[in-house]
Amino acid sequence: MLERLRDALIDRRIRSKAAIHHTPLDRYRVRIARDVHQHEDAFRLLHVAYAFQGIENIRSDKLRITPQHVLPEATVFVAYEGEQCVGTMTVTLDSPAGIPVEKDYPEAIERLRNHGSTLVEYGSLAVVRRCWSTGVVVLLNIAASYWAIHMLEATDIVMGVNPKALPLYRSLYGFRPLGKPKQHAELTAPVAAMSLRIADGLAHTRKYWPKPMASGRTIAEHYAIELPECIEIPARLSSREVTRWKLPRSVFQELFINRSDRLDTLDPTTLAYLKRWRSDQTLQASENTKDFFIKGSPHATW
After folding, report:
1. Is the pLDDT of residue 173 over 80?
2. I want to staple 56 with a disulfide (CB 3.0 to 4.6 A). Which of 50, 89, 141, 196 is the partner?
């Protein structure tokens, strides 16, 4: 009883302060990362944000790339203010290689699959400090949700968050815990898994955020019907067209092989699945390039 009362008070305070319908639609532009520069912006911002929180060791040249980022199921969203990247979030569709939070909550994720759910995970979220509480996360969430609903045909969203953020996501979007907090598998931090049935999330948003944004549409309408103009992603794509938005070969080679050791750290299941999507020629060409630099080329830059 006391816990429910506490949650109700927290929810009321969060909603009274959020006012997400006031999110500016002319300050930021949100798009899907398509080239090396945009991916590098996202991965470097993610590393800096995690280092700032003390959950990852800081390195000036570090890019935070998860195992799922190398797979075609990952879609990296980036938010720009002018020419500066100020926010990023990744949406990962479930696949035989799994999703990131599964490392910490395998049983809970498997239960969702057994219920027939098509899962996407929202993760790798980072926003520059001065843009906190300015609407960047709202816009990234609208873009991610529209993509999950219309392009990936997902039924459920899962996330791994800091336990302190549980009330926030429960209040704003209707997420529910999947289990007790645990120690994160990769980061020096606790994690709590949450899930949301997309249909329930739409109902929650319609109920608690009925006011229209500057576009004239509500948050739920932007999820389900039409994106605001500041979110520059396709309105509709067929399943075949979606594959064209997968990570380009040149970006894959540059970031995941030539400039990081991410492929060397993949578990056997993820690596085997990756090889179904990337040709031997692509992987071998990059390996030869890396060997060339390692052997001491005078032009090596890493």
Report:
1. yes
2. 50
